[in-house]
C-alpha cells in the first residue's frame, strides 16, 4: 500500500523524496504529495493521479529549497483519490504535516472530538485527525517526538505515520504499528521509507523497527523509543541488493524484467542450501529437528499468487513427507477459528512480508501455540520477524505489482521445505532428495529455454488481443498454475479469466465453452499416465464444443498435436516441479497482452503491491 519517504540531511529534500517516491510508486498510485520544511513554514504540494502529475505541478510551481522533507504515494482507503485527500495532511495552523499508510480505525470518534473543539476538517481521510492531534501537542509545548508518542497511544488500527514540524526543521519523526517502515542510515543524513527501495541509491545500511515504535531522524542520528517513550533499539542490517536491481535495465516494464530474471532468481533461491555431502541445510530454519519431527499437520496461509504457490506446496510436501497439509487464504483462516495445536506448523507465504491478512493469520496461529515458518522475499519485513523460522526466497526486489519471480522463488522455497522435512523425518532417502535437488538445479536452464522462445508467446498475445474471456485448465500441480495464469490476465489485461481444475469441468464450467473461446490447458507430463490421459480427454471435450485450445505440454508429447490450436512446448521435468516452467509462458502472455492493450503493466488499476490493510 502507500509509499512513504522521509529525509533529513544536506541534499535537496525534494529531489531525494521525489526519487524515493518514484521507486515506491508500485505501492500505490492514486495520488502523490510532498511537504518540505523551509524557514519556519511547511511548503506542500499534492496531486491526484500518478506521481508524474505531482512532478509536473512542482515543475510549474517550484517549492523553495529545503533539506528536510516527507513524501507519499497513496492507495486510497478513506476518501476518494482527489487532490484534497492526497497526503500530506496539515494541522489547522499549517505547522505540522503528516503522511500515513494504514487505517486509523477510531478516526470517526477522534474526528468528532476535534470538530467539537472547533477544528475544521479539510479532507475526508482518516489521516487528517493525526495532523490536528500532533499539532495540538506541539503547540502545547511537546517536541514532535513526544507528540508522536502521545498521539500514537490514542490511535487504534494499523499505521505508519511520518511527520514534520515547521518549528523544528532538522527532525523527521515516524511511528509504526502493523505497517511497514524502515530507516536508512546515511552519513550526515538519514532516511525513512516504506521499504528500502526508497533510499537504496543513497545507502544500503538499514534499521528494522519493531512494533509500536517511534523513530526520530536528524542529520546526526536516529533515536528509537516505544509509544510510551521508553528507549528502544532497531535492528541494523545490510541490504544485499543495490540500485541496479531497482532499475528496469532496458525492459519496458519491471514485470517483464522480473519475468526474465527468473533463471537467476531460481538459482539464487537454491544457492547454499545443501552441503557438499548433499544434505539440505536451511540457515534460517530456527526450529529444531525434534520440533519438525513432532509436526502432525501443516497449514499454509497466504493470499493471491502466494496462495497459489501454497497450493503447489501442498502437493509436494504431502507427497514427500506424508504430513497432512491444508492451504488457506489467510483472511479466511484468521476468522474461522481453525484447529491449531503446538504440533501444527503454519507456513506463511508472502513476497512482501507485510501483507496484513497473512500477518494477522500468523499472529493468531502463534497465539494458539502453533509454530510459524515464513517463506518470504523481504529481509527485515514483519512476517519473518514475527515467525519462528524463515526461508528467504532471495528473488531480489520485486517491483512490478503482479508477482512473477516472487511466485517462482516461493515454489523453490516450498520444495526445499518439503525436502528438508523429508530429510529430517526420514520419509525420503538421501539419494531421492539429491535427485529432486538435482532436478531443481536444472530449472534455471529450463526457464531460460522458455524465455528464449518468447516470440511465439508474444505472437499468441497479438492474436488474442481482442479476447474478452479466457479460461485456464490444469490438473494436480497444474491446477494452481491455471489459477495463476488466470489471475495474471485479470489483473493486468482486465479480461475475464478463470482457472479450473480440469476434472471439475464437467461439473459446471463446461457450460461456458463456446465457439472460439480461448482455453489454456496445462498438460501434465506424460510419465503421469492417468493425469496426462485424463487431461487429454478434457481437451477433446472442450474442443468438440468449439474451444480454441492453447496447450502447454511436454516437448516430446505426441498426444497433444491433434487437439491443439497452438502448443507451447515445455521441457521434460518431474510432475511436481512442472509449475516452475509452466507458469512462465502464462506470465509472458499476460504481460505482453496487457502491454499491447496499452495498460500500465507495472501499476494495474485499483491494485497496489503489498496490501498492508485487512
Ligand atoms: C498477484 C499478486 C498478489 C500477491 C498477494 C500476496 O500478482 O502479486 O496476489 O501475491 O497480494 O502478496 P504477498 O506475497 O506480498 O503477501
From TrEMBL:
Taxonomic superkingdom: Bacteria
Cellular component GO terms, alphabetically?
cytosol
Annotated SIS domain residues: 288-427, 460-604
Where is this chain primarily localised?
cytoplasm
List the catalytic residues.
Answer: 2, 609
User: According to the entry, what is the taxonomic lineage of the organism?
Assistant: Bacteria, Bacillati, Actinomycetota, Actinomycetes, Propionibacteriales
Q: Which gene encodes it?
A: glmS
Keyword vocabulary terms for this entry: Aminotransferase, Cytoplasm, Glutamine amidotransferase, Repeat, Transferase
Under the heading Pfam families, the entry gives:
GATase_6, SIS
Q: Which GO terms describe its molecular function?
A: carbohydrate derivative binding; glutamine-fructose-6-phosphate transaminase (isomerizing) activity
Instruction: Name the EC number(s).
Output: 2.6.1.16
Stretches assigned to the Glutamine amidotransferase type-2 domain: 2-220
Q: Which GO terms describe its biological process?
A: amino sugar biosynthetic process; carbohydrate metabolic process; fructose 6-phosphate metabolic process; protein N-linked glycosylation; UDP-N-acetylglucosamine metabolic process
Show the catalytic activity: D-fructose 6-phosphate + L-glutamine = D-glucosamine 6-phosphate + L-glutamate
Compartments annotated for it: namely:
Cytoplasm
* Class of this enzyme: transferase
From the Swiss-Prot or TrEMBL record, give the protein name.
Glutamine--fructose-6-phosphate aminotransferase [isomerizing]
Purpose of the protein: Catalyzes the first step in hexosamine metabolism, converting fructose-6P into glucosamine-6P using glutamine as a nitrogen source.
Subunit description: Homodimer.
Amino acid at each position: 500500500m502507500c509509499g512513504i519517504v522521509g529525509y533529513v540531511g544536506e541534499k535537496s529534500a525534494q529531489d531525494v523524496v521525489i526519487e524515493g517516491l518514484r521507486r515506491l510508486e508500485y505501492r500505490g498510485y492514486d495520488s502523490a504529495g510532498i511537504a518540505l520544511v523551509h524557514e519556519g513554514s511547511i511548503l506542500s504540494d499534492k496531486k491526484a493521479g500518478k506521481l508524474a502529475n505531482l512532478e509536473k505541478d512542482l515543475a510549474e510551481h517550484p517549492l523553495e529549497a529545503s533539506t528536510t522533507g516527507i513524501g507519499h504515494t497513496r492507495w486510497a482507503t478513506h476518501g476518494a483519490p482527489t487532490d484534497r485527500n492526497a497526503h500530506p495532511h496539515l494541522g489547522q495552523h499549517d505547522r505540522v504535516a503528516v503522511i500515513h499508510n494504514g487505517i486509523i480505525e477510531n478516526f470517526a470518534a477522534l474526528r468528532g472530538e476535534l470538530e467539537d473543539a472547533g477544528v475544521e476538517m479539510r479532507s475526508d481521510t482518516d489521516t487528517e485527525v493525526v495532523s490536528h492531534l500532533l499539532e495540538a501537542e506541539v503547540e502545547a509545548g511537546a517536541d514532535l517526538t513526544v507528540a508522536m508518542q502521545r498521539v500514537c497511544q490514542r490511535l487504534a488500527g494499523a499505521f505508519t505515520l511520518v511527520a514534520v514540524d515547521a518549528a523544528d526543521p532538522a527532525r523527521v519523526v515516524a511511528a509504526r504499528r502493523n505497517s511497514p517502515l524502515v530507516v536508512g542510515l546515511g552519513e550526515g543524513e538519514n532516511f525513512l521509507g516504506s521499504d528500502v527501495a526508497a533510499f537504496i541509491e543513497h545507502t544500503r545500511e538499514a534499521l528494522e523497527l519493531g512494533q509500536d515504535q517511534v523513530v526520530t531522524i536528524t542529520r546526526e542520528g536516529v533515536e528509537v523509543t516505544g509509544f510510551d517513550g521508553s528507549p528502544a533499539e532497531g535492528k541494523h542490517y545490510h541490504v544485499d541488493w543495490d540500485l541496479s536491481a531497482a532499475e528496469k535495465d532496458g525492459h519496458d516494464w519491471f514485470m517483464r524484467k522480473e519475468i526474465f530474471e527468473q533463471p537467476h532468481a531460481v538459482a539464487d533461491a537454491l544457492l547454499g542450501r545443501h552441503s557438499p555431502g548433499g544434505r539440505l541445510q536451511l540457515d534460517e530454519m530456527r526450529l529444531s529437528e525434534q520440533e519438525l519431527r513432532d509436526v502432525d499437520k501443516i497449514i499454509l496461509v497466504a493470499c493471491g499468487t502466494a496462495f497459489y504457490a501454497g497450493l503447489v506446496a501442498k502437493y509436494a510436501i504431502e507427497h514427500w513427507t506424508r504430513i497432512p497439509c491444508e492451504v488457506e487464504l489467510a483472511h479466511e483462516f484468521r476468522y474461522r477459528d481453525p484447529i491449531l495445536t503446538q504440533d501444527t506448523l503454519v507456513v506463511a507465504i508472502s513476497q512482501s512480508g507485510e501483507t496484513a491478512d497473512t500477518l494477522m493469520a500468523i499472529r493468531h496461529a502463534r497465539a494458539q501455540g502453533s509454530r510459524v515458518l515464513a517463506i518470504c522475499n523481504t529481509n527485515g519485513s514483519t512476517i519473518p520477524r514475527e515467525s519462528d523460522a524463515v526461508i528467504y526466497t532471495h528473488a531480489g526486489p520485486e517491483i512490478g505489482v503482479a508477482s512473477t519471480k516472487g511466485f517462482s522463488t516461493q515454489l523453490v522455497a516450498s520444495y526445499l521445505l518439503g525436502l528438508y522435512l523429508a530429510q529430517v523425518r526420514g520419509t525420503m532417502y538421501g539419494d531421492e532428495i539429491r535427485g529432486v535437488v538435482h532436478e531443481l538445479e536444472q530449472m534455471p536452464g529450463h526457464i531460460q529455454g522458455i524465455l528464449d522462445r518468447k516470440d511465439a508467446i508474444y505472437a499468441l498475445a497479438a492474436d488474442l488481443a481482442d479476447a474478452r474471456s479466457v479460461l485456464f485448465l490444469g490438473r494436480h500441480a497444474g491446477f494452481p498454475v491455471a489459477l495463476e495464469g488466470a489471475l495474471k490476465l485479470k489483473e493486468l489485461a482486465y479480461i475475464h479469466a478463470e482457472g479450473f481444475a480440469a476434472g471439475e469441468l464437467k461439473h459446471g464450467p463446461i457450460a461456458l465453452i463456446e465457439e472460439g473461446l480461448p482455453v489454456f490447458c496445462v498438460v501434465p507430463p506424460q510419465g503421469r499416465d492417468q493425469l496426462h490421459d485424463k487431461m487429454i480427454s478434457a481437451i477433446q471435450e472442450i474442443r468438440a464444443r468449439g474451444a480454441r485450445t492453447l496447450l502447454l505440454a511436454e516437448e516430446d508429447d505426441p498426444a497433444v498435436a491433434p487437439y491443439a490450436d497452438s502448443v507451447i512446448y515445455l521441457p521434460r521435468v518431474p510432475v511436481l516441479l512442472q509449475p516452475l516452467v509452466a507458469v512462465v509462458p502464462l506470465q509472458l502472455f499476460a504481460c505482453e497482452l496487457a502491454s499491447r492493450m496499452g495498460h500500465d503493466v507495472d501499476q494495474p488499476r485499483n491494485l497496489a503491491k503489498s496490501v498492508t490493510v485487512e
